[in-house]
UniProtKB/TrEMBL annotation:
GO terms for molecular function: iron-sulfur cluster binding; metal ion binding. Keywords: Iron, Iron-sulfur, Metal-binding. This is CoA-substrate-specific enzyme activase, putative. It comes from Dehalogenimonas formicexedens. Pfam families: BcrAD_BadFG.
Length: 277
């Protein structure tokens, strides 16, 4: 029977889960808006996962902003912080990675890796101008879906300059650009560049970003943001498949590693007892 390791990322905006095999293949995944009820969303994504897989579930690891609450209620095997899980996912997907950029709906992180281990990290401050919610709000103002927003960012030739680091001032720059006849793709890409500048000035402050760089989190699906990071950093940015699942993947990898280690210790101890008879 297939052994399955469940990873759950109980985030403030979205809740994600993955089922991982012994070979570290993702057998199933689920994604739902948290909708201000992380426990209910977590139960729903896990129910979706369990209905689509066939095997023995060995445990569940929980990460994300609501990890303590959800982990306790679901009697999780492991509860772990997001930095560790995001780092594990990046090192698994890109073993040579030296920098991880993770931007979600409400927070963002910069993680420095050395030989697959966390060497340093930083998170954004309280301002939303360095998170995905900033772009989602601007997309709604322009009456665009996030897919349309990202596609138009790639069409920009002369992006506007968004000077404000605060969301309020950024919106003021956007409105002024609209009133003065700036093209919509240039406005959109200007906003993407502003988010990157805010991220680098906040989470990236006083930290050297070295390639290979892995871009994770839901915002990494936005090709306009990928373009903006490439332009600002002047080197390639790697976006793994399904970057929004990176936290849940890292949690599942951590669970697999810890359970495998414990089982190996158990077998080694049993072998020692047998040899002493």
């Amino acid at each position: 029977m297939t052994c399955i390791f469940l990873g759950l990322d109980a985030g403030s905006v979205s809740t994600k889960a993955v089922a991982l095999s012994e070979n570290c293949d993702i057998l199933a995944s689920a994604y739902l808006p948290t909708a201000a009820d992380p426990l209910a969303a977590s139960r729903q994504v896990l129910a979706q996962i369990k209905s689509s897989i066939n095997g023995e579930i060995l445990g569940i690891a929980v990460t994300g902003s609501a990890r303590e609450l959800v982990g306790e209620k679901l009697e999780a095997t492991i509860v772990k912080n997001e930095i560790t899980c995001q780092a594990l996912a990046a090192a698994h997907l890109v073993p040579t990675a030296r920098t991880v950029i993770e931007i979600g709906g409400q927070d963002s992180k910069l993680i420095v890796l050395r030989d697959g281990l966390v060497n340093d990290f930083a998170m954004n401050t309280i301002c939303a101008a360095g998170t995905g919610s900033f772009l989602e709000h601007q997309a709604r103002r322009l009456n665009l879906t996030m897919e349309e927003f990202a596609s138009e960012a790639l069409l920009s030739i002369q992006p506007i300059k968004v000077t404000g680091r605060c969301t309020v001032f950024a919106e003021s720059d956007m409105v002024h650009a609209q009133q003065t006849g700036a093209k919509r793709p240039d406005i959109i890409y200007g906003l993407c560049l502003a988010l990157v500048r805010n991220f680098l000035a906040d989470a990236g402050r006083n930290r050297q970003i070295e390639p290979p760089v892995v871009f994770q989190g839901g915002v990494a699906k936005n090709k306009g943001m990928v373009r903006a990071f490439r332009e600002m950093l002047s080197f390639e940015i790697t976006v793994p498949p399904s970057p929004e699942l990176s936290g849940a993947l890292g949690a599942a990898l951590l669970l697999k590693r810890d359970l495998t280690h414990n089982m190996n210790r158990h077998f080694q101890g049993t072998a020692g007892l047998d040899s002493g008879r």
